[in-house]
Amino acid sequence: MLGRSRIAGILDWLLLLPRATGKKSMKKICFALCLMLWTLGPVFSIEENIKPEIRQNDAEYNPIYLDEAEITAPSFFSKIRKDEIYTLDNYKETLKSSSANIDVITRDDIQKQNSPSLAQILNSLGSVTMQNSNGSDGSISSLRIRGTDRVRLTIDGIRADRPSLTTPGVETQFILSDDIEAIEVLKGAQGNVSGVNATGGVVSMQTRRGEGPLKIEAGSEFGKYGTFKERFAVMGEEENADYYLSTTWYKTNGAMRTKNMGRLFNDSYDNLSFVSNLGYRLFDDRAEIRDVFRFSNSRKGLGLGYSNLSYEYYNDPNNYMKNMDLSNSLSYSHAPNEIYDYNMRFGLFHNSNKNYTLEDMFAPDENSISKIDSTRLNFITQHNFKYKDWNKLSIGYNLENENIDGKSSALMYGSWPMFPLQQYNSSYDGSTLQNDVFINDVINIKDIFYLRGGARLLSNNEYGTYITPNSSAALVLPTFKIKGAKTKFRGSWGKSVNTPTLYQRYGGFRDSYMAWSGNSALNAEKNTSYDMGIEQSFLDDKLKFEFGYFHSKYKDYISGYYETDPITWFTTGYYDNIDRASIEGYEGKVSFEPNEKFKFLINYTYTDSKDKTTGFSLPSTPKNRLNGTVYFTPFERLSLYAGIETGSSRTISSTSNDKVSGYVDARIGTSVKLVSTDNLNLYLKGNIYNLFNQDICMYKNTLANDEYYAPKIRLNTGLFLEFYPFSKDNRGRKKERV
Q1: pLDDT at position 71, please?
Q2: How many CB atoms lie within 10 A of CB 70?
Q3: Given a cut of 50, is residue 604 above it in pLDDT?
Q4: How many other CB atoms sit within 10 Å of the CB of residue 337?
């Protein structure tokens, strides 16, 4: 038992810490922890003080213990279950014990939404804003958590954001959802546990893996605006191995619209992807080798052109973009015993992006081609030590190398009387090397109080050396006199660093009037953030209410600025550090899941962001956002889905107060099992997007005084097949892992 006498030593240590550091913020934190621990003394020794007659009365005394099934997975390497997460570490823990704010999208959620776009799926979460710049599929996307696009995206443990991005945010338009097993979204201060560029949070995705007997999946869908998707996958599991192989072809005409030009018929999107996930287990399932390979090749029509003859934008069929993503995650994990496990991971992410602006009758002088290749190499190792059930210590190392190689050429200014036809060529390259050493410790006191703390020492050859500490805590208590209910208090604090993208440092045209040239003098962003919240559950977690507050302060915030020459009217873009920026807000969530047939979620987020230099709000973040989701399976053959999201107006740039209006977006979907036999399941699926046929403005071009809208109402429908080549009697039973 841990009573007040045993807490005394902890209090002494905490009180000495601020004297050693001399920092006011540390003093406040330590004082709060001391007060919490002192007041919790009776709670930690609760079993000593309970009278026998009360101990026998469940209505009066309901201590919170995690079920054994929730603590111990069937296997160290088994498929992640619904109540398990690993975002913060490479070992699993439960959502009940997490001291951070984490949302999980399961494979079941993804199947029911049946959307190829990750934007639709991620927008069903609270505090997450995912939008495409021009509305239609394949357009440049922006992912923000709690108002900031400083978000780290990982797939199977390796970073999957492009080093060549013009902004530090995450693009997901090239990732199709069909091959994703689960998505974990960590919000706020604890994102720095995963490394740099995670002040807003972390989006962690896991690729599907094979389980059970040989299974073949095939699907064919079509819809409005010339949309279709063809898919084929093979998966399964042998005694010591599993495999998952899939290929998907997705194509749509996009359906982007503008206020001045109406429907654009040249913003098509064509994506062909291939995914493989191969695993092999050794040493009686105590070790595993896994390789996950992902490849995507796409073409996106950009739709718009700009004429130097008429000084206006027009519908341009000759502007398009080609993109190729290739990633590979090779990992080895081993758990020699119950006390110690470790893993090593080698990661590769390569991107090749080409943009074409070709001359035509509207702009005979418009001819430019740019190509950017970028590569990131990772080596990550983590070692986890478990002391009994109350302490988990993790230490690790991360090596990350990024490089960029860009070439651009342009023929321009020919139609301007004051300028002759000019040819511009530019090439640029650069790289950064970063080493991280990190440590994290998790303390579990009687499944009631969870304390996490750690730090990361990172050294970047261009931006210097930093220490980023983090801490979080959660207190889980039975709700007074309510059986099956519990109250959870959680809070986190952390410091983190965001490094500029390689494009922001090295990229762009040099010595010309082309936009967005790199700035080699950029500094890394520094961030301090914290959050706190309360979660109240009833009916054994079937009904939950959550409310929280978050706050972030940035120093040297990186932002993009435009300058217009008053004589030539040429507009150029550049990057610079803002001295200070801040983001704060509130988030609330209600979830109700009484059984496997019904699930209801509603989220509300208020976000107040400010550029302290200009006084304007940070771009693309609505102050108020509300979204809700309902899943309903009345019987085994029928599944229904409905979702709605709303957002208030939002600014489009840090340098102006220009805004786009708010929006309401609703969608519904259904899945009907048409045929079911021992070997085959056949489903009919359908979705309606933008159900109310709204004009949803995604972006505003102030120069052209034009607004870009998402597609109008659209319908997708198709057939989905699951086929088992062997009969049910001959499939055998899945091997039970120890």
Answers
A1: 34
A2: 16
A3: yes
A4: 8
| Cα separations in angstroms, 196 against 103, 485, 706 | 21, 38, 36
C-alpha angle 22/26/30, rounded to 5°? 115
Task: Please name the residue that has the structure tokens 């001295």.
Answer: 579
pLDDT tens string 465-521: 999 999 999 999 999 889 999 999 999 999 999 999 888 888 875 444 445 678 888
Q: What's the CA gap between 472 and 441, in Å, rounded? A: 11
Handedness of CA 635, 638, 639, 641 (dihedral sign): negative
Band (13; pLDDT cuts 50, 70, 90): very low
* pLDDT tens per residue, range 512-563: 444 567 888 899 999 999 999 999 999 999 999 999 999 999 999 887 776 6
- 570 vs 515: CA distance, rounded Å: 9
Report the C-alpha gap between 703 and 705 in whole angstroms: 6
Going by pLDDT thresholds of 50, 70 and 90, the confidence category of residue 19 is: very low
Instruction: Please give the C-alpha separations between residue 661 and each of 149, 500, 657, 696, 711, in angstroms, as whole numbers.
Output: 20, 30, 12, 8, 16
Q: In the structure, what pLDDT confidence band is assigned to residue 55 with cuts at 50, 70 and 90?
A: very low
Tokens of residue 415, six digits = 């139609």
Measure the CA–CA gap between 661 and 335, rounded to whole angstroms: 53
Give me the sign of the Cα torsion angle 217, 223, 229, 230.
positive
Distance CA 336, CA 548 (A): 40
Q: Please list, residue by residue across 46-55, b when 16 or more beta carbons sit within 10 angstroms of its beta carbon and e when fewer do.
A: beeeeeeeee
DSSP H helical ranges for 151-191: none
| Cα distance from N-terminal residue to C-terminal residue, the chain | 32
> ∠ at Cα 144 (141, 150), nearest 5°?
100
Q: Provide the 3-class DSSP secondary structure of residue 2.
A: coil
- 562-603 tens-digit pLDDT: 666 666 566 667 788 888 889 999 999 999 999 999 999 999
CA distance 502 to 404: 7
Bridge partners (DSSP) of residue 578 are 557
**526 half-sphere exposure, CB direction, 13 A CA radius:** 13
Q: Are 630 and 650 in contact (CB under 8 A)?
A: no
Cα–Cα distance, 111 to 669 (Å, whole number): 10
In a 13 Å sphere around the CA of 43, the CA atoms on its Cβ side amount to 19
Q: Per-residue pLDDT averaged across 83-108, rounded?
A: 75
Q: Give the closest residue to 681 by CA, choosing from 723, 718, 717, 725.
A: 723
- Give the pLDDT mean for 350-377: 84
- Paired with 351 in beta bridges are 325, 374
Picking from 152, 67, 248, 225, the residue whose alpha carbon sits closest to that of residue 499 is: 152
Name the residue type at position 475: L
Rounded to 10 degrees, the C-alpha dihedral 223/224/225/231 comes to: -10
Q: How far is CA 583 from CA 145, 166, 256, in A?
A: 11, 22, 31
Q: What is the 3-state secondary structure (H, E, C) of 466-499?
A: EEEEEEEEEEEEECCCCCCCEEEEEEEEEEEEEC
Question: Whose CA is closest to 606, among 146, 188, 119?
Answer: 146
